[in-house]
Automatic annotation (TrEMBL):
Organism field: Alishewanella tabrizica
Protein name per UniProt: TIGR02646 family protein
Length: 221
């Protein structure tokens, strides 16, 4: 997982919260209109256009980034932590909710109201060494890491759909010709690009690609 570095809460949301009075209190349920649109856009921008959990692309061009296929995810569920329902630090952008068109749920929708303070890994942590991405697109917990294993199960990060999507991205970058002919400098260039945004967006499944590139880099003297 790419590490998320939270940015400043959108001014539109701060102003909306400031409207609180004796007759009206802000809540996630009544977050709508411009404040909600600003929040969605801010979350995706700080994540580089990828899901906070699986890192698949969830948004397109920046001028329409808030209209992508994602929902606002509460890392600590609203049902358990109602006081955090509008805490910006608790909000992220995760994959779509619907499974009727896009296939079985994964990531935030699969996680639902599950919470375990000892096992839940936050995407705001550096988790790049806690998950292992294989060259066939599958994912494993690194070195019997129990929280990572549980996250894979609870968020269905090993779903067939995600495995296939990761594999497609891997073979799109690491073609047989590239692997056969690329120099160390060329491998390093592509590796660095995995952690560099292009027009504000990360490449989907960047960590998975980077891990696999590193296995080839390590073979160079």
């Amino acid at each position: 997982m790419l590490q998320i570095h939270k940015q400043a809460e959108p001014e539109e949301v701060i102003a909306w919260k400031a409207l609180e009075n004796e007759d009206w209190q802000p809540s996630y349920a009544n977050l709508a209109g411009a404040p909600r649109k600003a929040l969605r856009k801010a979350l995706v921008l700080e994540q580089g256009g990828v899901c906070c959990y699986c890192n698949r692309a969830i948004a397109g061009p920046l001028n329409a980034i808030e209209e992508g296929e994602f929902h606002i995810e509460h890392l600590q569920p609203q049902s358990i932590f109602p006081s955090l329902e509008l805490s910006y630090q608790n909000l992220h952008a995760s994959c779509f909710k619907s499974e009727s068109v896009k296939g079985p749920k994964h990531c935030g929708p699969a996680k639902g109201n599950w919470f375990d303070g000892h096992l839940l890994l936050s995407p705001m942590q550096d988790l790049t060494e806690r998950f292992k991405y294989l060259d066939d697109g599958t994912i494993e917990a690194m070195d019997n890491d129990e929280p990572a294993r549980v996250m894979i199960v609870k968020l269905k990060l090993d779903s067939e759909k995600l495995n296939e999507a990761r594999f497609d991205e891997l073979v799109g970058v690491m073609t047989p010709e590239f692997i056969k002919t690329a120099t160390r400098a060329e491998f390093e260039k592509v590796y660095r690009a995995c952690f560099t945004r292009t027009n504000g967006l990360y490449k989907p499944f960047a960590v998975a690609i980077a891990q696999n590139l590193k296995t080839f880099l390590d073979r160079f003297p």
